[in-house]
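Quick question, first post here. What does this chain look like in 3D?
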Amino acid sequence: MFGSRLDKARHAFSDTVVQAGRILLVGEGNGRFLTSLLGQKGDGCVKVVEKSTVMVRLAKDRIRKLEDMRCDVEFIETDLHRCQPGEGFDCVVTHFFLDLFNPPGQTAIIEKFAELTTENATWINVDFIPARTLRGRLLIWLAYRFFRMISRIEAKSCSDESPVATQSGWILAEAIPYLGGLVVARRYRKMPA
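> Answer (accepted):
Ran it through. Tokens below.
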């Protein structure tokens, strides 16, 4: 619906992600961001949790074309709720993932990220947020109606994850709006224990 303009938001904090050693990439989809990340990353490991078999296949096909990949990549094809990807991640990345869940589902996921990450970890989240204009509310309503019918997502509308993130031990370090404020790229830091 919004085309390639969403890619700019996905890459808002690419430098931060590239510098991390152990990355958990959740809901990656077809591998566009992963391919870009691996093309820049010298070492480390990336675990990709993706529920869709089709998306995992597409992502694997994309990264096969990379000539000089020096980073370890592992795909975990399952729902994040059932997944135990390990611990000690320096960085978690979610692009247009949390907005698929209602607030209770978001809370459980955000708390899980806090458990899986190291002290001072970074979490990059790019998502739609509640619109402030009538035009924006109409666009978001149409998008959610479409995705609920086609993909059977849980959420009926988008919600702002930042209050739950703060309660779960994440500090908002930076936020960059896109698409007139309909999308926000946020970089969180984990609060020291």
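The chain has one domain: 5-130+158-190.
The two ends are 41 Å apart (CA to CA).
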